[in-house]
């Protein structure tokens, strides 16, 4: 739990932890997942999660630019642990449940699918060296049909990251 908390995942302190999988099985929202995955991508350095990259005025003046915010100092997770987690998550895309997220070519990437027991919601979280993105999908109560993190969320992630990420030939830091 301590490693997940320092990587950006803040489960309630009284929530039980089940060490069944690499990242645990307690609940996490899209922002927490993005923060944790960005920390893995940067070999343990913290990243600020944001949904808006830049805001421009009608005349083109930059009103807000997330890139202009100063980086958070230090590491919040040992680089070796972050690299090991990242290595395990690379397997989900190359040969696991996340193969539909594969960007192909010379793009370093890692990610993981997620699906609840009821099949709703489902998500895919992943990173390239320059961008971390989480895709969450859900359905209205009473809607039939099961979702799978390796299906629609992985496909949406691949479509978006294929256009938004500029990571061809880049490597993750160690």
What would a concise description of this structure say?
With 174 residues, the chain is of the alpha+beta class. 27% of the residues lie in helices and 16% in strands.
Inertia-based shape: globular
Lateral arrangement of strands in the main beta sheet: 3-4-5
Order of helices and strands: HHEEHEEEH
Helix content: 25-40%
Structural class computed from helices and strand pairing: alpha+beta
**How many angstroms does the end-to-end distance come to?**
23 Å
Instruction: Please give the largest β-sheet.
Output: 3 strands, antiparallel
Which stretches of 5+ consecutive residues score pLDDT under 50?
18-23
Mean pLDDT over all positions: 81
Radius of gyration, whole Å: 17 Å
What does this molecule look like?
Residues 18-23 have low confidence and may be disordered. The protein has a 3-stranded antiparallel beta sheet, sandwiched between helices. The protein has a two-stranded antiparallel ribbon with strand order 1-2. The protein contains 4 helices and 5 strands, in the order ααββαβββα. 27% of the residues lie in helices and 16% in strands. The protein has 174 residues and is of the alpha+beta class. Helix 2 (30-41) crosses helix 3 (79-95). The chain has helices spanning 2-6, 30-41, 79-95, 152-164, and strands at 54-56, 62-65, 110-115, 122-128, 131-137. Strand 3 (110-115) and strand 4 (122-128) form a beta hairpin.
């Amino acid at each position: 739990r301590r490693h997940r908390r320092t990587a950006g995942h803040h489960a309630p302190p009284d929530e039980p932890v089940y060490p069944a999988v690499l990242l645990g099985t307690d609940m996490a929202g899209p922002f927490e997942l993005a923060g944790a995955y960005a920390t893995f991508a940067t070999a343990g350095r913290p990243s600020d999660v944001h949904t808006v990259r830049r805001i421009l005025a009608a005349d083109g003046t930059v009103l807000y630019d997330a890139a202009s915010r100063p980086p958070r100092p230090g590491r919040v997770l040992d680089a070796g642990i972050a690299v090991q987690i990242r290595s395990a998550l690379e397997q989900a895309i190359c040969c696991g449940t996340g193969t539909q997220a594969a960007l192909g070519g010379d793009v370093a990437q890692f990610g993981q699918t997620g699906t609840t027991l009821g099949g709703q919601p489902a998500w895919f979280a992943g990173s390239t060296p320059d961008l971390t993105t989480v895709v969450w999908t859900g359905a209205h109560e009473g809607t039939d049909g099961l979702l799978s993190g390796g299906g629609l969320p992985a496909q949406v992630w691949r479509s978006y990251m294929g256009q938004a990420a500029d990571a061809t030939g880049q490597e993750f830091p160690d």
